[in-house]
């Protein structure tokens, strides 16, 4: 039974890891990290406001925002002709917590089995 439960957990953690991959990839880039930090200091910013605070071009910032949005780390809202971006990290944070919890259970089981 223990091996079956361990196999199920390993399958679950593998699935969770795949689901978290876009978040890991999005957060791996220093420019995207900078954008995340900017958005922690402001409720929302448009592309021009982010460009003002960055050495990157408008097209580069737009590209990075697209990746952050695909990873569900930022949300966008259109106001008139401008699109504003804001942090929206609750979902990804919950995914990461679940991944870590499953990983910890696997480690605990392996540690208990080694004793």
Overview of this structure, please?
With 115 residues, the chain is α+β, with helices and mostly antiparallel strands. The protein has one domain (2-114): Arc Repressor Mutant, subunit A (Orthogonal Bundle). The chain contains five helices and three strands, in the order ααβααββα. A three-stranded antiparallel beta sheet has the order 1-3-2. α1 (2-27) runs antiparallel to α4 and α1 (2-27) runs antiparallel to α5. The longest helix is centred in the first third of the chain and has 26 residues, at 2-27. The two termini are 18 Å apart. The relative contact order is 0.17. Keywords: DNA-binding, Transcription, Transcription regulation. GO terms for molecular function: DNA binding; DNA-binding transcription factor activity. It comes from Cohnella ginsengisoli. Residues 12-107 form the HTH arsR-type domain. Pfam families: HTH_5.
- Our estimate of the beta-strand percent is 5-15%
User: What is the correct CATH architecture?
Assistant: Orthogonal Bundle
- Mean pLDDT across every amino acid position: 93
Distance between the termini: 18 Å
Give the proportion of residues in helices. Answer: over 70%
Major sheet description:
3 strands, antiparallel
How would you sum up the global shape? elongated
Physical arrangement of strands within the biggest beta sheet: 1-3-2
CATH superfamily: Winged helix-like DNA-binding domain superfamily/Winged helix DNA-binding domain
Given as residue ranges, the uncertain stretches (5+ residues, pLDDT < 50) are none
Which H/E pattern describes the elements?
HHEHHEEH
CATH class: Mainly Alpha
Structural category: alpha+beta
The total strand number stands at 3
Number of domains: 1
Q: What would you report as the Rg, rounded to the nearest angstrom?
A: 19 Å
CATH topology: Arc Repressor Mutant, subunit A
Number of helices: 5
């Amino acid at each position: 039974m223990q091996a079956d439960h361990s196999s199920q957990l390993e399958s679950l953690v593998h699935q969770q890891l795949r689901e978290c991959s876009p978040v890991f990839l999005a957060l791996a880039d220093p420019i995207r990290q900078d954008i995340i930090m900017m958005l922690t200091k402001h409720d929302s910013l448009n592309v021009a406001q982010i460009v003002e605070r960055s050495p990157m071009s408008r097209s580069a910032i737009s590209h990075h925002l697209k990746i952050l949005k695909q990873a569900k780390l930022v949300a966008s809202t259109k106001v008139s002709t401008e699109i504003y971006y804001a942090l929206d990290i609750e979902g990804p944070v919950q995914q990461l917590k679940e991944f870590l919890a499953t990983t910890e259970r696997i480690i605990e089981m392996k540690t208990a089995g080694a004793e």
